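Hi all, posting the design record for the shared folder.

TITLE: backbone redesign
STEP: 1 of 1
STRUCTURE INPUT:
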């Protein structure tokens, strides 16, 4: 059983040595992930884990990769994408140039879903999608844009439910057991490392998506990240969160208005 004070000491040491700040991640989630990592590497105590992590950078890189990977899929929660089409993209179309930030982009499924949405609405050519994550391995997978063909049936179904206007197979090339995302969907995407816990705003955006990331943070860090998004949005910019997330306990709650309460889409009001 992982001791809470030992866990705090380990996370502080990681922050001091590597600059990665996991101290405000939800404790139960952190314990669960560390326990899984330890079992997978035949490590029995937190002290043993700390000893290896703090002296072996390659091992620490593996730890970060496993610690931060989240489950994702293309057009996950199709109703959310329907709402984006209906309530957001028409307003984005009024801008001469559109900047979108996908924070915590993981392996890129959401990035390419948004790119497809923009393409179908005639907006991709004047858009830039900034796709960021803390996990370098996940970011590389996102850049590659290669997904298992076994997933395509489910992704196709999601796409159709999300109101897709074309054939989903138009957006990838099937090769052996893999699907390679069409190059046109990558041209306007910038992939970059960004740590929501410690890094600052780097641009002004019309739309920020951060879905199913805040659930892994404690309330203090959630509030800090919402403030970061507020600072990063242009006036009347849009913020999209995951369906289990909200602005309820954020001190910026009154600075946003609901666009779609059910799908957690907000507009920066002041």
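Okay, here is what came back for every position:
SEQUENCE:
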């Amino acid at each position: 059983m992982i001791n809470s004070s030992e866990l705090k000491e380990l996370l502080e040491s990681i922050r001091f040595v590597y600059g990665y700040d996991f101290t405000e991640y939800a404790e139960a989630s952190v314990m669960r992930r560390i326990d899984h990592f330890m079992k997978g590497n035949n490590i029995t105590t937190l002290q043993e884990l700390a000893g290896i992590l703090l002296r072996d950078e390659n091992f620490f890189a593996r730890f970060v990769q496993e610690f931060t990977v989240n489950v994702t899929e293309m057009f996950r929660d199709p109703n959310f994408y329907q709402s984006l089409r209906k309530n957001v993209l028409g307003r984005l179309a009024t801008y001469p140039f559109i900047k979108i930030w996908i924070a915590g982009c993981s392996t890129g499924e959401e990035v390419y879903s948004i790119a497809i949405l923009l393409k179908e609405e005639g907006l991709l050519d004047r858009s830039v999608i900034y796709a960021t994550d803390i996990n370098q391995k996940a970011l590389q997978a996102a850049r590659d844009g290669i997904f298992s063909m076994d997933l395509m049936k489910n992704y196709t179904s999601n796409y159709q439910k999300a109101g897709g206007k074309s054939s989903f197979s138009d957006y990838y090339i099937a090769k052996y057991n893999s699907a390679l995302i069409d190059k046109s969907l990558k041209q306007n995407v910038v992939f970059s490392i960004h740590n929501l816990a410690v890094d600052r705003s780097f641009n002004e955006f019309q739309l920020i998506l951060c879905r199913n990331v805040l659930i892994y943070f404690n309330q203090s860090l959630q509030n800090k990240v919402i403030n970061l998004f507020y600072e990063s949005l242009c006036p009347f910019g849009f913020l999209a969160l995951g369906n289990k997330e909200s602005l309820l306990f954020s001190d910026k709650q009154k600075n946003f208005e609901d666009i779609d309460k059910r799908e957690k889409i907000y507009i920066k009001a002041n």
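COMMENT: The radius of gyration is 19 Å.
Let me know if anyone wants the other runs.
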